[in-house]
Prior knowledge:
The chain has helices spanning about 5-30, 45-50, 55-60, 65-75, 80-100, 120-150, 175-195, and strands at about 30-35, 40. The chain is mainly alpha-helical.
Amino acid sequence: MNPKIEELLHGIRTMEAELEVQMALARAELHVRIEDGKIEFDKAVLKRHREMKTRLLRYIVGARPLIALTAPLIYLLIVPFVLLDVFVTIYQAVCFPVYGIPKVKRRDYMVFDRRYLAYLNVLEKLNCAYCSYGNGLIGYVREIASRTEQFWCPIKHARKLVGAHPHYREFVEFGDAEAYREEVAKVAERLCEQGKP
């Protein structure tokens, strides 16, 4: 890989780590604690959150009519989401061991912690759970697809790719046949090594 690109990637990883630190500090300012996987708020904060909750009936009555009319379309997506979830999970369970690719942990992508927010009513919590599932599922599927791509065809595109997955950075340059022949096995090998103790 180009030394300048490696240097930039190192800088990006450093900045991402710093961003995580700053987000943790921001959570601390809101008096949110995560201890042993349990989310807790200070009692005064929790009391204020409960005071700010919009009652369910007021929330429903206050909804714009077009939003209420489109809600069934949103919730209908649960069918293809669940089918995608099942098929991709089966694909990974069957194929990844054969290829030697480390499996993606589904639980890392399915985060349902917004239910602890006392300022949300039951419908808002349901909506949040639905969005958490949909976005978590897409992240899970994307990681499985990106590992598959890294194993089978780690070549960058000629055109700029919007929202490239993290593995894409390691791919060989488009049109560099020599690098592809020299590096393709190494790129796949690095992926497979990630799953080994």
